[in-house]
Structure formats: structure tokens, C-alpha cells
Amino acid sequence: VVEGEDPLPGVVLFIGETKFAEGPWLGIELDEPKGKNNGKVQDVVYFTCRPNHGIFVRAAKVLKLEEQPKSNAQEASPANADASQFAVGARVLVRTLENVQGTVRFNGSTQFAEGEWLGVELDQPQGKNDGTVRGVAYFSCPPLHGLFARPGNLVLDQSAASSTSPTTTPQSAAETLQEAQDPGFPGESTREASKAEPLAVKVPQDVLQISKELKEQFLSEVQQFEEWRTAPRCLG
Description:
Blueprint: E1 10-17, E2 24-30, E3 40-41, E4 44-45, E5 54-57, E6 91-94, E7 100-108, E8 117-122, E9 132-133, E10 136-137, E11 146-149, E12 154-156, H1 170-181, H2 205-208, H3 212-230
Antiparallel strand pairs: 1-2, 2-5, 3-4, 6-7, 6-12, 7-8, 8-11, 9-10
């Protein structure tokens, strides 16, 4: 809470020295739009928040509230957030946009500002760019879906369900190939009764999705089988 006649609750997003004044400063995102900036002062971005929600104060002007129980969408204190915990592809919530969901597409340094930045593709068009800033493409996404934020402005989305659809593994494809090579696979028992009919080879859909090399191997085996089936034989 920022002390004064009207105490202002908020969250510390920056601790350190600045270029606009000497000594350590605290950058705070206020809960209400009673601040002076959005975390940017004199063209230097120290943190990111909504317009008029940012304020810089000395530590003596701040009182720490009792820690509240954390929800599933909360992690450690934003001031201690580390960019290394946000892998590219991770699902996150953007605190400065009232926990709008998104996916991390970039993690690293940029040319537009110093320090660590995370590039996020938002699920909704509430961003500021398409992954390109000042002519430099850091990632690609639809217009107004891109946003760059400091690690302290993001939290991992713990509610994201890791649902996966059934996929075909090389082992299952190999089992399918083994079935085709097995003399006892369905249809072989009636081979003599169907000599006059061409053999219809139906390639399973999952085999078509495996690697090109395994696919070619499968077709080669089928061709060898067809040549063996149609080769003249001595029945006596």
C-alpha cells in the first residue's frame, strides 16, 4: 500500500535504480487508475501496466500488506519472477490485462529496451503488435495479438489442461507392417479362392502419417508381397 491521505493498494513490479532520479525506487502497479504512468518514464520502460496504473515511490512510502492466499493462477511475488520459468510455448496469464490468456512465443533480449522480455501471443486481440517492434520481428502472430511484457507481469496458467489426442507411434506402424508380412494375416486363408481377383491393399490411415522413410518401406514390402502372390507356382 502506498502511504498518503488516500492509501493506494498495488503490486510491486520494479525494484532498482532509474534514469530519472538517483537512488533505489519501487515501481508499483496500482489496483485503481490513480497513478502517473504505465511503467514507462522518459522513454525508458521499467515495467508494463495499464495507463495511469503505474507509479514510482521510495521504499519508505510503501507498507506491505499481509500475504493473501494464492490462487491457481498465482505464482511467487512478481518482483522475483524469472524469465527462465517461462518456456516458449508455455501458457500464461497477463496480469496487466486482467489475466488475459496467451502463449509465450519469445523469451530473451530485444532492441527496443534493455533486460529480459517475454513475447506473448494473446488469445484475444488485446495486444499492441504482431510480434514485430520497430521493424524487428521477434515472433509472428495475428495483428493486435502480440504483447511484450516483463516476467513480473506474467504468471503461469496452472489451469491449462494438457489434453492430448491419440497419436500413432512408430511402434504401432511397425506392428501394422508386421501384420501385412505375416502369412496368416486376414485374407491369406482365402488366397486360393480369390486368385482371379486383384488384391486390394488398403494402406491404414495411421501409416500415412508416419515418416516418409517408413512409408516407402511399407509400400516396398507390399509390392514384394504382390509379386510373390502373382508368381507362377507348381501345384503338383
